[in-house]
Amino acid sequence: MTFYIPQDTTALALGADSVASALQAAGIEPVRNGSRGMFWLEPLLEVATDTGRIGFGPVTANDIPGILDALEADASSHDLYLGPVEEIEYLANQQRLTFARAGQGDPLCLDNYQALNGFKGLSKALGMSGQQIVDQVKDSGLRGRGGAAFPAGIKWQTVLDTRGEQKYIVCNADEGDSGTFADRVLMEADPYQLIEGMVIAGLAVGATQGYIYLRSEYPVAHRLLNIAIERAVAANFLGDNIQGSGKTFHLEVRLGAGAYICGEETALLESLEGKRGMVRAKPPLPAIEGLFGKPTVVNNVLTLAAISSILEQGAAAYQNFGLGRSRGTLAIQLAGNIKRGGLIELAFGVTLREVVEDYGQGTHSGRPIRAIQVGGPLGAFMPESQWDTPMDYEAFAAIKAMIGHGGIVVFDDTADMAAQARFAMEFCVVESCGKCTPCRIGSVRGVEVIDRIVANENRDNNLILLHDLCDTMEFGSLCAMGGMTPYPVRSAIKYFPEDFLLKDAGQGYK
């Protein structure tokens, strides 16, 4: 029997190392795999038996002796027995393309990666022209998974068509939105997939150098990525003359500056160049003048990771998933006050209610859900009347909401939505790069106006002022930091107006 215990950040935070030590003390050397994304079951112990892999979870070190005894007799007799891992409902009902390999083995083992169809997309790409690769990406309908949802193939086409002796591929791995962790899970559970996608991107547009701009708070991903890059170079999947093709692509990891604004692509490029992370005016677009003024593809982790599947299986196979202009699958991350938090990969079109109720199983507190924020700290707060909206970029845009990076944060009926609106403005105060006035000053004034509203100081006029301020920020800010801060504020006022009234003078919010 082979035992698997994750080395994923979440599993480690919940005691996975102590479980691994307990197994070692019993004479068993476990495989340290990546997480399946079922965080409510972490640490999840998987055991490969003659009849398949079975699971136990959540496991502590003290549970190991009892589990080992049960495995000798009847595994199903143990209280933590979950049955075959692939049949756990939460996982079995997903449509995993990008995360198909996550949790299946040692994420640093090249043999394991190749046994699970790894580098097959790259192998095909090495025999194609740059234009043929770009056409596959365009035909797949893949859109950027970082939030803006811009068609990836169009961006690649622009870089391919732009002359330049040096071009770059930059992976935006500065995952900073609240409730998001899909990038981290991918990098920790399947780093070669990201590497493969970036090499293919380089082949497509004629770039020979890539950078992964990694969030500094991800030390596990940092360690695993660096080891994976070293091993990929040693195996000739990276570097010079890749697999004897005469093609070159080099890759480095660079740690981020610890600023939310560096998730914006132009601020990221400034930071990558060694400057303060401040937003650039566009045009010129990064695709034309990006890193060091050269044509640059800037894509999110999940966008680049999806490339290997598209090349391996073909654009049509990827296009078969999804709804309308939202093709393929979406990595949904369930967080906040949720009973079963974790990663879910589904085709676009599933409703928000299905995700939160069927997968999340409601709130962790057991109280009714009051609001759901989708798309990070700049996403709108959605009331129950909107929960049947299909998760599709256009459907969400139609109700002034956004899918963004796919993070979902759930609030129960004790949440103070006026306080959440204030937090959105305060977040902008702290994280603004300061380059444009609407964002830099507007957010400060926004906090002050909300404070006056909930204190019932000239409330009606201040509500008018707040809406005017939101207009100025939305339409006058240089980037989405200031431009989208009004989304949570306006939605909180519109759908939860009672929270902006004082219950009694002097009692603060609500």
Describe the overall structure:
The chain has 510 residues and is of the alpha/beta class. It has four domains: 2-92, Glutaredoxin, CATH 3.40.30.10; 110-319, Rossmann fold; 322-412, Roll (Ubiquitin-like (UB roll)), CATH 3.10.20; 417-500, NADH-ubiquinone oxidoreductase 51kDa subunit, iron-sulphur binding domain (de novo design (two linked rop proteins)). The protein has helices at residues 9-13, 16-25, 64-72, 89-92, 110-115, 120-125, 130-140, 152-161, 182-189, 191-205, 219-234, 265-272, 301-313, 315-319, 352-359, 393-398, 417-431, 437-454, 459-476, 480-484, 486-495; strands spanning 2-4, 45-49, 52-56, 81-84, 168-173, 209-214, 250-255, 296-300, 322-323, 326-327, 329-336, 342-347, 369-374, 381-382, 407-412. The protein has a five-stranded mixed beta sheet. Strands 1-2-3-4 form a four-stranded antiparallel beta sheet, with no helix packed on it. Strands 7-6-5-8 form a four-stranded parallel beta sheet, sandwiched between helices. α9 packs across α10 and α17 (417-431) runs antiparallel to α18 (437-454). The protein is globular and about 70 Å long. The N and C termini lie far apart (57 Å). The relative contact order is 0.10.
Shape by Cα distribution: globular
Q: In CATH's first tier, which class of the largest domain applies?
A: Alpha Beta
Please report the distance between the alpha carbons of the first and last residues: 57 Å
Mean pLDDT, nearest integer? 93
CATH topology of the largest domain: Rossmann fold
Which class do the helix and strand fractions yield?
A: alpha/beta
Estimate what percentage of residues fall within beta strands.
5-15%
The tally of strands reads 15
Q: Give the name of the CATH architecture of the largest domain.
A: 3-Layer(aba) Sandwich
